[in-house]
Amino acid sequence: MQFLSKIMISALMLMFFGAISHAQTSTRTIIVEDVPQPDNFYRVSASKTHSGYAVPRFVSLKYGEVNGRLGPSRQHPVLWQYQRKGMPLIVVAEMDIWRKVRDINGDESWMRKSSITRVNKVVAISEIKIRRRAKDTAAITAIADKDALLDLIECNDSGWCKVRATEGSKGWVKRASLWGSGPL
Prior knowledge:
Strand content: 35-45%
Oligomer: single chain
Number of strands: 14
């Protein structure tokens, strides 16, 4: 069994490193597409997880540089290096000190639990108008650019979320214009 596992890991590493060498020799293509909606989760209640929190759940990056790995150990190769403190992620699985996370693009990797925090952040998936109240007709207090990182204060049952921008302006935006605000 151990031998078979080593063969499977070796095959995965060859596929991974083969993809990297191919990417380095080919021209770079930028693909612009809609942000995928989070789905296809295996749900686990809080009482059955290492952390005591339900899976799936939103978390945020605690640091400005975090490695996302192929598997749950430092021996696994780094798939991604995330470089945006506060970026929201979804925990889709966990074991002891490792969390498997899904990012805004739908990519998954493993990272140490010490690299993430329960502080709620969201990303604007388009340019959004931050309003004084949770109404389409309310006065606009600020405008956030696409990909702006905002603090999530709360969301209501009407599909609006209260957010705070980095410079301190607060207000309400439609939940559908944010990534990281659930529901999962």
